[in-house]
Amino acid sequence: MRSIKLPLLPMPFTRYRSARSMPLARPSFADALGCASVLFGMLLSNVAAAVPATSDEAGGLEEITVTAEKYTSTIQNTPISISALSGEQLAAAGLTRLEDIAHEIPGLSMRSAGPGLTEYEARGLASNGGAAPTVGFYLDEIPLSPPALSQSGKVVIDPDLYDIERVEVLRGPQGTLYGSGSMGGTIKIITNQPKLGVFEGSAQATGSYTDGGGGNGSANLALNMPVGQTLAVRLVLSDLYRSGWIDNKTVSPFPVTLGNPVQGDVANAPVTNDIKNANDEKLWSARVSVLYKPSDDFSILGSAMQQHLHMGGYDLLDGSPDSATPSRVYDAHYEAFPLREYVDDNVSIFGLTMNANVGFADLTTATAYWSRLGVQAQDASESIYYSNGGGTPFVPVAYLERDPSHQISQEVRLTSHDGGPLHWVAGAFYSELHSAWNEIGQSPLNETPAIPDGAYFISWNPYTVKQTALFADGSYKITNQWKISAGVRWYTYKSEQDEFSWGYDGPNATPPAAAQVTKASDNGFNPRINLSYAPTEDLTTYATISKGFRPGGANQILPPPTSPPFCQSGALQFGPDAAWNYEVGEKAKLFDNWLTVNSDFYYIKWTGIQQVVTLPCGYQYYTNAGDGRTFGPELEINAKLSAEWSASLSGTYTDAKITHPNAAYTSFLENVASLPDTVTHPDTPSRPCTAGTTCTAPIMNVAKDGGSISVTYSTEVMNDYKLSARVADVFVGTSHDVAYYFDYTLPSYNIANARVSLEHNNWAANVFVDNFTNKVALMTANNTSFQFNIPQLVRYSTNQPRTVGVQANYKF
């Protein structure tokens, strides 16, 4: 029987952050998934024991090797909640970006305005508040942090995924081995390393067409070049162009009545300038790694990566301001003046990793440095006019945000040799992140004696976070079936913000003489304990208790309450938050590994939740809103139905809420609820929770339920040609988001993809259709991002329309 590659792991489900309780009319999916997780945990041990294991599993599913616990294992033998996609699976499914992978992983969600502008969450632990993410992100041994104060969110570096060995996603707090920013989980991208004594490479070319847009194209090249017997170099080059599909239209006269700042019918106003397919994308990257390995006991790996991404506009559609639900969404972005919106993201990454056998353990040192400059530009003319109640001239105003950041990090750890029942990892970590938030909103028509530089708002806010940690984690096999694991991480951090802000809508009319300095610090412990039971080689059950944390930080200074109106004072600091995770799960292989079933159920207690607050004056600040919880089951099933057919199924249910808002947050909600609406909606949008400490408030942007299914067919044709076909569909349930201070319900959606491949020797040709139903999914309500938030303008992030293409691959 011929071996078939493992079908792609279940596709996603939770795509965005948090949600209110779903109506009682839709409990069936959650009930079924919860029952499935419990039944699998109770019954599979008997089933697995009844099916004899064999040493020859060539016809079964292949397992992926992972290093989630800082040593080599497999998914099925690692007693934690982890998913992984191999490089072969990524290529087979046509997944080339990290956002694509978020569709494939249970419990992983995201909030995005397009490539380079995506933040990730797991298990309902949203990162919309605070200055740090809730999901850690690693490229090999390099921790990558988002800009601390970016108004577009905790957006991570978006690396191209060509020539990748695998992607691992660890769900739940990973505070012991991965530290802060891994409160909800950790994403690890592991690249292919140089190979000694082997010359090899691959090339790929892709062409496609997007419905309503235009042509797309990409090219990739990977080369592995040996130098003697102890040195090798691996080079990866990528170039991509994605057509846009969203037009930027300038209409004049803009439909607004002076003194009555309510947006009119922009869709029927005269168009004076039309930028077609404005949200196009251009990306190129180069990655090189050099391996020196004189013996099996010593190696040095150096790596460098350079990447540039440019987008001509955002993946955002305008919503009509006369509806509180996404029932009317335009197919374009409408502006009063022809101001081009764009995004630039320039990244340089350097890493040096040394591994040495020191006798009793393996020593690893990982040194890394990266720098990043993100730049965004938005048309703020409408926001400025509306935020000032129509009391300022309707003039062109462009807002520019620059987020320069760089980080140095060092980790040193010892890993024991696998020679007995005890295995341990111990080490130390240090990182220093420097990030600046630089925002410029100016118009020469705003120049007055009081504001000579025409500044509506200008800031230069350097931000520094220094972190130090000591960690130890180990496991001990009590018997052949029972294993206990435990670990702890001691951490300390210090952060400082130096703020210079001024302008017509700023805290100062002119540049201040000195910076306002805000500092924060804390220290503590993150423990973990895990007990696993493996009655057979085909079944592993486990229970875990773990903790994760996220640093606190500093807020920007708000203007006086009278200018602009309703800008109430906010604290200059917010504290850290933490999550305690309680989890049980199982991993089963059945029928000689032709079927795998992995499921878990978790309950997370989240304390001191960092939440973003939008004030009626358009400003935002971060606060600790209180305590909450998130819980739900997760399920992944992979099955090989025959020698030719395989299938994958996944599902999740996430219930995340702020259950005990504190007095300060409750007071804010009640104050906001008492304010009059500044825009009239036929269907009045709902307000946040206002019933005092007994109410529950949603944690935004996580779909409450979701699921996916994929079916793969593979066979041999025409003597040594391999034909394969794959169809996949992902369902994302309804979710909630806040624009201004209104709560918007985002509808559920399905996205389906299909792909057919023909392989022969070193060649492969593919035909694919992504989003073949041409679904327009409204994924988040992005409310003008770093401009002033106003109720008149809501923009929804959306997905790429139907895209049909061909791809050619060659290996040598």
Description of the structure:
Strand 25 (516-536) and strand 26 (539-550) form a beta hairpin. The protein is globular. The strands form nine sheets. The chain has a 22-stranded antiparallel beta barrel. The protein has a five-stranded mixed sheet with strand order 3-8-9-6-7. A three-stranded mixed sheet has the order 14-13-18, with no helix packed on it. 51% of the residues are buried. It is mostly beta strands. It is built from five helices and 45 strands. The longest helix has 23 residues, at 28-50.
Quick description:
By secondary structure, this protein is mainly β. The chain has five helices and 45 strands.
Which terms summarize this structure?
about 800 residues; mainly beta; 22-stranded antiparallel beta barrel; 5-stranded mixed sheet; 5 helices; disordered N terminus
From the N-terminal CA to the C-terminal CA, the straight-line distance is: 27 Å
The portion of residues assigned to helices is under 10%
How is the main sheet built? 22 strands, antiparallel, barrel
Unreliable stretches covering 5 or more consecutive residues: 1-57, 677-687
Shape, per Cα inertia axes: globular
Structural class: mainly beta
Strand content: over 45%
Mean pLDDT: 83
- SS elements, strand count: 45
